[in-house]
Each structure stands twice: as structure tokens, then as C-alpha cells.
Design brief:
Layout lengths: L3 E5 L4 H12 L5 E4 L4 H11 L6 E4 L2 E4 L1 H9 L3 H4 L3
Parallel strand pairs: 1-2
Antiparallel strand pairs: 1-3, 3-4
Length: 84
């Protein structure tokens, strides 16, 4: 299985949706709460070039946010990335 990383905050509704989508698929992920560790916010911005959450990575491939991941799912492109 690939390494899935989510940069999130606890109250973000799109972060909740991203977690639920991955959980429905049975995919384990690493969640990094950028409010709990400000250094991680900087790392997220440097890694993704974006300031909003969630930011989602599959291995080192930047997927984008929840809407981007949901679109990949609808198009049938997410499961191959997740090796499902």
C-alpha cells in the first residue's frame, strides 16, 4: 500500500470528508494536524504550494485537496493510485 498523508485541521469540513472517503476505502493514512504543530503548516505549504487544508499526498505525489481527491475517485483514477 502506498503512504497516504493528510495535512488537516480538526474542524475543517473538507478534512473530515477526506478522512471519511479514505476510511470507506479501508485505506490507512498519516494525519498531520497543522494547528497542533506550526512547523508542519510551513512544511505543508513548502511541499504543496498551497495554504488550505486538507492537502493530500499519495507517496510523494500531491493529489491536492478533498475536491481533487473526490474527482479522482469519480473518474476511477483514485483506486489505482491507492493500489486498490
Amino acid at each position: 500500500m502506498p503512504q497516504v498523508t493528510l495535512y488537516t485541521t480538526r474542524i475543517c469540513p473538507y478534512c473530515i470528508r477526506a478522512r471519511r472517503l479514505l476510511e470507506r476505502k479501508g485505506v490507512a493514512y498519516e494525519e498531520i494536524d497543522i494547528n497542533a504543530d506550526p512547523a508542519q503548516r510551513s512544511a505543508m505549504i513548502e511541499r504543496s504550494g498551497r495554504h488550505t487544508v486538507p492537502q493530500i499526498f499519495i507517496d510523494e505525489h500531491h493529489i491536492g485537496g478533498y475536491d481533487d481527491m473526490a474527482e479522482l475517485d469519480v473518474c476511477g483514477e483514485l483506486d489505482p493510485l491507492l493500489h486498490l
